[in-house]
Amino acid sequence: MTDRYAVFGNPIAQSKSPELHAAFAAQTGEDMSYERIEAPLGGFEAAVRAFIAAGGKGLNVTVPFKVEAEALADEARDSAAICGAANCLKIEDGRIVAENFDGVGLVRDIAVNLGVDLKGKRVLMAGAGGAARGALEPLIEAGVAEIVIANRDVAKAEAVARLLGPRGSIRASRYEALEPGFDLVLNTTSASLSGAEPPIPGKAFVGAELAYELAYGKGKTPFLARAEHYHVGRIADGVGMLVEQAAEAFAWWRGKRPDTAPVIAQLTVPLD
Ligand code: ATR
Question: Stretch 35-41: mean pLDDT, rounded?
């Protein structure tokens, strides 16, 4: 029988997950279906339980349900527990297990697809929301030397910087206090979604080898244009991260790792 999967969100029409998983299933010969489900606000848990009762084997979760997804799980793996949010659930022997593959997708895209060695690097992370929280643990695991989290609301950045405790060198900063010396600059804010950009001082870009926009499909965002203006070695958007987190979910559910390169190539929107 065809195994059933879905992505839950509200709104959900914009999600590319069904196309990604259809491509992976075709590539690996897995017999599965994958649909979009728009859960009502306040009705996420009921919708998930109904899906599982109807035979659902796993699901992705997007805005605004990632925190609720982690909370309803019987077990949250480290990636989800540390950031208090899940983007993927799997039904294992009737129990709901939560993971968050956003951060690992980001790290795989940077380290494997873009070929940037993360060991010993200094990272500036703009933003302290869910996307920033998810990226911390995988970046520390990958061996970065330091992460500086800059946010307009510095108290929020300080709270996020404390999440990993003594496991990494992570500190919070005001944007205005940033100095040069970063190897990587990551935009985890939602600013690009409205055509805005985080107020990173130009000097913080100087000498960086990569500026990475976690949003995707927006072309050269104001953040990436600014990075280019300050001669950052390379700019990239989050299309690879999107595909890699989906591949992680697929591998977790189906035990087979799909080839991401052709799918990334298909979805890439040129940055010029
Ligand atoms: P998500 O879960 O997508 O990360 P979020 O938790 O609402 O969303 O967090 C959004 C992040 O984008 C926050 O760090 C927010 O900064 P503040 O906490 O200071 O508000 C940041 N953000 C959104 N728009 C921004 C803008 N125009 N400039 C700078 N930061 C912005």
Answer: 98
φ/ψ region of 260 (left if φ > 0, alpha if ψ in -120 to 50, else beta) reads alpha
Using CB distances shorter than 6 Å, the residues near ligand 1 are 127-131, 151-153, 156, 189-191, 196, 198
Mutate to test the pocket of ligand 1, among 100, 185, 190, 200 (most ligand atoms within 8 A of CB): 190
Asked if residue 94 and residue 113 are part of one domain, the reply reads: no
Flag the least confident range among 143-157, 160-174, 184-198, 204-218: 160-174
Residues known to be catalytic:
66
Report the separation in Å between the CA atom of 127 and the middle of ligand 1, taken as the mean of its atom positions: 6
Please give the mean pLDDT across all residues of the chain.
96
Q: Which domain holds residue 167?
A: 103-239
| 151 and 85 together in one domain | no
Query: Strand 235-236 to strand 210-213: parallel, antiparallel, or no bridges (unpaired)?
Result: parallel
Domain total of the chain: 2
Atom of ligand 1 nearest to the CA of 189: 12
* 61 SS3 class: strand
